[in-house]
Amino acid sequence: MNIIAIDYGSKNIGLAWCDDALGVVLPFGMVQNADNRTHNELVNLIKKEKIDKIVIGLPLGLDGKENNNTTRVRKFVDDLKKEIKIPVDFVDERFTSAQADRMDGGMAGASRDEKAAMVILESYLAKQ
């Protein structure tokens, strides 16, 4: 199953990819979160790569409660679901950026946003 993880930020959207049969999570690019082109670019990428599932980080507050950022991500997912009919799972993304910053040098070419998406996807796979 082709799975893509999304670290949705107000400026950038980090992506990671995995074929769960292989179990290897890889950085998959980053797009600037600018306008409707961003939405279209993601929809086209998901269709082109024949993605079977989307995993997206849910930015809960430190207290575990939803906030304005959570609402923003849920709206983004609702908009995606209008065009893409594949399952979407949420993963608590608290501290993923800090974990991404601690990733070793083997990921030197990956952006912080891609690394955060990788952490989200690895967390999701570990719970399956």
TrEMBL record:
<keyword id="KW-0378">Hydrolase</keyword>
<dbReference type="GO" id="GO:0016788">
    <property type="term" value="F:hydrolase activity, acting on ester bonds"/>
</dbReference>
<dbReference type="GO" id="GO:0005829">
    <property type="term" value="C:cytosol"/>
</dbReference>
<comment type="function">
    <text>Could be a nuclease involved in processing of the 5'-end of pre-16S rRNA.</text>
</comment>
<dbReference type="InterPro" id="IPR005227">
    <property type="entry name" value="YqgF"/>
</dbReference>
<keyword id="KW-0963">Cytoplasm</keyword>
<keyword id="KW-0540">Nuclease</keyword>
<dbReference type="GO" id="GO:0000967">
    <property type="term" value="P:rRNA 5'-end processing"/>
</dbReference>
<dbReference type="InterPro" id="IPR006641">
    <property type="entry name" value="YqgF/RNaseH-like_dom"/>
</dbReference>
<feature type="domain" description="YqgF/RNase H-like">
    <location>
        <begin position="1"/>
        <end position="100"/>
    </location>
</feature>
<dbReference type="Pfam" id="PF03652">
    <property type="entry name" value="RuvX"/>
</dbReference>
<dbReference type="InterPro" id="IPR012337">
    <property type="entry name" value="RNaseH-like_sf"/>
</dbReference>
<comment type="similarity">
    <text>Belongs to the YqgF HJR family.</text>
</comment>
<keyword id="KW-0690">Ribosome biogenesis</keyword>
<protein>
    <recommendedName>
        <fullName>Putative pre-16S rRNA nuclease</fullName>
        <ecNumber>3.1.-.-</ecNumber>
    </recommendedName>
</protein>
<dbReference type="InterPro" id="IPR037027">
    <property type="entry name" value="YqgF/RNaseH-like_dom_sf"/>
</dbReference>
<dbReference type="GO" id="GO:0004518">
    <property type="term" value="F:nuclease activity"/>
</dbReference>
